[in-house]
Amino acid sequence: MRCVIARFPFDLVKSEVQQAMKGIKPEPITGESVVISRRTYPVKQVGEIITRQDRRDFSAAEVTRALTRLGFTCRSVPAPAPVAEPSPLETASAMLGTPAQS
């Protein structure tokens, strides 16, 4: 499949991407990610390996679009879990503290 990443054309094949990522240890996920051979990689790490370019030269969206078209499962940044605000009763209890035990 032909795609353009950072203004450069690439002919990507799913099996070649899988082969390129074989033996590469995934970095911690902090943004968008892609599943390749049951491992989850950051999209920027995969883009750097398959294009041999610095990750600052391309966007995650460019690589995500190309990998999705190849048939890989891409995931967006997970939404942060909502922080539950304490109820007025819980706030009052926290302000009063716990009773002293004898």
Which terms summarize this structure?
102 residues, alpha+beta, three-stranded antiparallel β-sheet, two-stranded antiparallel sheet, 4 helices, 5 strands, 36% helix, SCO5918 family protein, SCO5918-like
Give structural notes:
The chain contains four helices and five strands. By secondary structure, the protein is of the alpha+beta class. The chain has one domain (2-75). A three-stranded antiparallel β-sheet has the order 4-3-5. It has a two-stranded antiparallel sheet with strand order 1-2.
Please summarize what this structure is.
The chain is α+β, with helices and mostly antiparallel strands.
| Residues in helix, % | 25-40%
Radius of gyration of CA atoms, rounded to a whole number: 22 Å
Hey, roughly how much beta strand do the residues contain?
15-25%
Distance between the termini: 74 Å
How much is the average pLDDT? 89
| Sequence of secondary-structure elements | EEHEEHHEH
Q: Give me the number of helical elements.
A: 4
Major sheet summary line: 3 strands, antiparallel
Helix/strand structural class? alpha+beta
Oligomeric state, counting identical vs distinct chains: single chain
Strand numbers in spatial order across the main sheet: 4-3-5
Q: List low-pLDDT spans.
A: none
- What spatial form do the alpha-carbon principal axes imply? elongated
Number of strands: 5
| Total separate domains | 1
InterPro entries: SCO5918-like
Organism: Streptomyces niveus (Streptomyces spheroides)
Protein name: SCO5918 family protein
Region (Disordered): 81-102
